[in-house]
Amino acid sequence: MAETVKGPASYFPAIEKKYGRPIGDWQQLVRESPLTKHMELVAWLKSEHGMGHGHANALVAHALAEGRGR
């Protein structure tokens, strides 16, 4: 039986469907951004890419947890 995805990654299928880009692309954008604070990055995704708050928050949380340098 498949394990249920929890946490920020649980949003990923909906994000890919709604915004038409793979999660890897979004994570790369977050990692390459000169912004460093979580909420700055969330606001940037919302204002520059039209992303909803929950989706932006999930992407930023996941990308920052993995480390920006990857």
Order of helices and strands: HHHH
The percent range for strand residues is under 5%
Mean pLDDT across residues: 90
Rg calc: 12 Å
Please give the share of residues in helix: 55-70%
Gap from first CA to last CA: 31 Å
**Main sheet makeup:** none
Oligomer class = single chain
Number of domains: 1
Number of helices: 4
Pfam family, one: DUF4287
InterPro entries: DUF4287
Protein name: DUF4287 domain-containing protein
Organism: Streptomyces carpaticus
Care to describe what's here?
The chain is mainly α and 70 residues long. The protein has four helices and no strands. Helix 2 (23-32) packs across helix 4 and helix 3 crosses helix 4 (53-66). It has one domain. It comes from Streptomyces carpaticus. Pfam families: DUF4287. InterPro entries: DUF4287. This is DUF4287 domain-containing protein.
Outline:
With 70 residues, this protein is an all-alpha fold.
Secondary structure layout:
Elements: H1 12-19, H2 23-32, H3 38-49, H4 53-66
Helix pairs in contact: 2-4, 3-4
Labels describing this entry:
70 residues; mainly alpha; DUF4287; globular; 63% helix; DUF4287 domain-containing protein; 4 helices; 0% strand
